[in-house]
Specification:
43% of the residues lie in helices and 8% in strands. The chain is built from 23 helices and eleven strands. GO terms for molecular function: ATP binding; protein serine/threonine kinase activity.
């Protein structure tokens, strides 16, 4: 009997075992290099689950144990419809580690990419993938191995198509121990076909590495093939680092192609700043296509079967099976029980040397001037240092080298705010601020507790603005951004909210776009000008042009020079006749020179143009301009009283 057969027999013998008196292993439904997945049953709650176990033989390997623990730690942070849900994790008395997950039915995305996918479906799928990443990144989890095998298609309880991200076995936890081998710079993990350039070079990564993988996935979905592929792993890594992606087919809309190419930028600074921004861009593209009638409505949703609990006879999808080590990982792993350890070590040395060579070539030929070494900044009395690590669920950590509250005091405040004991938290914050005036961490927590008070919205916005001015680097902190984003999307929207969204930089762009495209007419002419001026040029495509032209026509009287403001709006409405403009045209008052002011030719021109446009629209949309017909009242007939 070979080793594989022996391992399979050992795993099969676990059927019927009840782990920790709670989870019964009913059927072996998937095996892999590290262990197995069983269909299981929560014997108390009587609920079917999937249970992943690490093979007993590997419990002696600290690297594999750490990797299994990493999957549990990563997934345990996540609670989102587009991420696999892990409900429990533990170790049995005999040392076997296990992970309890929801039991899914459906197919892997990999099974559906045999041919090009319709752009509409690509957009829908990508938005769901990005929602999952958006949540994971906000919790400090970077997937690092996003690929079609790790995206699972199922349906929710209402029958709607649902994508889930699975297998967080090599995820990077932001804020984890720098000495952890699974996150240490210089180590290469992942699948080369979907690996970002910085990941391939073994340098420190951030959430934008996952966005590069999204670009690979979208390219593959749109074309049915990978943008970069090679049998030689080293050659493939070299392509990821230095080869530009091939052109997308002509049938891919240019707006969608632009999003894909930006995701595939070699320099991460040139990609989208975060998953939220990409999702917003795709949602805006989808909205534009629907508005223009260019959506692919003929493409039905794929039938992947309804959700049932009868999955015992189905093989486990590859996405949920214990992951096999890919080539790059396997040669970097040590195997103390193998007779070919020296051979693996030799291969590993060659791979590492080749990777180093690729890195050197990349930095020499494909990057700009090397950055100057960072100079230490002199400590300031109240100048915060590095912000807290992104996505840390415990909240921000100390940002200032100056004297400040202890970690215990900050943790106490976090607990009070989390429990809703806001008055108690406010009292302690005020006392600490007397000892440490203006300390960024205390101001942050003050903003957080204010944000939870329904009547203190404006104060919370101002307080968050103070935190950002004290620590500008927070505009890249996912935890901070998530808090501010949630606050700024609550009404009322004010000048302070617009200013804070602007100060957030790239992270604030989706909020500003949300503001200027809001269907409710809360924004004044000046506020809308302020938002437009703050938006970068590449965000112009996300603005709802029709809505904002209508607003301009309704509000030009508020402009400093009303007549000059009215002219370009009327010209645009004349050039592109739409029924959406009719109500604003009918209600518009002809601009005129103010009493006592010198004559303004622009006013006469604007008034004449308004009359011309109205006449043209009346001919094009006669029903909208037809006078309302008077409502005829029915005569009231008095009932005659019957004589007694």
């Amino acid at each position: 009997m070979n080793a594989a057969a022996g391992t399979s027999r050992d795993l099969a013998s676990l059927v019927g075992t009840v782990l920790d008196g709670t989870y019964r292993l009913d059927q072996l439904i998937g095996e892999g290099g590290m262990g197995a997945v069983f269909r299981g049953r929560h014997v108390i709650m009587m609920r079917d689950v999937a249970i992943k176990v690490l093979h007993p033989d590997f419990n002696r390997d600290p690297e594999l144990v750490r990797r299994f623990d990493r999957e549990a730690q990563s997934a345990a942070r996540l609670d989102h419809p587009n991420c696999i849900h892990v409900s429990a994790y533990g170790t049995t008395e005999d040392g076997m580690r296990y992970l309890v997950m929801q039991l899914l039915e459906g197919v892997e995305l990999a099974d559906l990419l045999t041919e090009p996918t319709a752009p509409k479906r690509v957009v829908e799928w990508s938005i769901q993938i990005l929602r999952g990443l958006e949540h994971a990144h906000s919790q400090g989890v970077i997937h690092r191995d996003l690929k079609p095998q790790n995206v699972f298609l199922t349906r929710d309880a209402h029958g709607n198509q649902l994508l889930k991200l699975v297998d967080f076995g090599i995820a990077k936890l932001v804020g984890s121990d720098a000495g952890d081998p699974l996150t240490r710079a210089g180590m290469v993990f992942g699948t080369p076909q979907y690996m970002s350039p910085e990941q391939a070079l073994g340098v420190e990564i951030d959430p934008r590495a996952d966005l590069y993988a999204v670009g690979i996935l979208m390219f593959q979905m749109l074309t049915g093939r990978l943008p970069f592929n090679h049998e030689d792993a080293i050659a493939l890594i070299r392509m990821q680092v230095s080869t530009e992606p091939p052109q997308l087919p002509d049938n891919v809309p240019q707006e969608l192609a632009a999003i894909v190419y930006r995701l595939l930028a070699k320099q991460r600074e040139q990609r989208f700043p975060d998953a939220r921004t990409v999702r917003a861009a795709l949602e805006r593209y989808r909205s534009n296509m629907s508005h223009k009638g260019r959506g692919d409505t003929s493409d039905p949703l794929l039938d992947i079967g309804s959700v049932t609990t009868d999955t015992a006879t189905r093989p486990l999808p590859e996405a949920l099976r214990p992951r096999q080590l890919d080539f790059v990982e396997s040669v970097l792993q040590t195997d103390r029980w193998s007779r070919r350890t020296w051979f693996k070590a030799a291969i590993a040395g060659c791979v590492v040397l080749a990777l180093a060579s690729v890195g050197l070539i990349y930095w020499l030929f494909f990057s700009g001037d090397p950055p100057a070494p960072a100079q230490p900044e002199p400590p300031a009395a109240e100048s915060p240092a590095d912000p807290s690590k992104a996505g840390d669920p415990a909240g921000p950590s100390a940002m200032s080298p100056a004297p400040g509250p202890s970690e215990l005091e900050l943790a106490t405040l976090d607990d009070l705010i989390k429990q809703g004991k806001l008055d108690e938290a406010q009292t302690q914050i005020d006392a600490l601020l007397e000892r440490y005036p203006g300390h960024a961490q205390l101001v942050w927590r003050d903003a957080r507790q204010l944000a939870k008070r329904p009547t203190m919205h404006e104060s919370a916005v101002r307080r968050y603005g103070e935190v950002l001015k004290k620590s500008p680097d927070l505009e890249r902190d996912l935890g901070f951004i998530d808090e501010v984003d949630a606050l700024l999307r609550k009404r009322p929207y004010t000048d302070a909210a617009i200013a804070l969204a602007t100060d957030l930089g790239a992270a604030g762009v989706p909020i500003l776009v949300h503001y200027i495209n809001d269907a409710k007419p809360w924004a004044t002419w000046a506020q809308r000008r302020q938002i437009r001026d703050a938006l970068p040029a590449d965000a112009a495509a996300q603005i709802d042009v029709v809505l904002n032209r209508r607003r301009d026509l309704e509000q030009f009287a508020e402009a400093p020079e009303p007549c000059a403001a009215a002219l370009p709006v009327l010209q645009a409405i004349q050039a592109e006749p739409l029924a959406d403009y009719v109500p604003a045209l009918k209600a518009a008052v002809a601009p005129a020179t103010s009493a006592g002011a010198p004559a303004d030719p622009a006013c006469d021109q604007a008034a004449a143009l308004l009359a011309t446009v109205r006449t043209a629209y009346a001919g094009r949309f006669p029903e909208a301009f037809a006078p309302a017909k008077p409502v005829k009242k029915k005569p009231v007939t008095k009932k005659k009283k019957k004589k007694k």
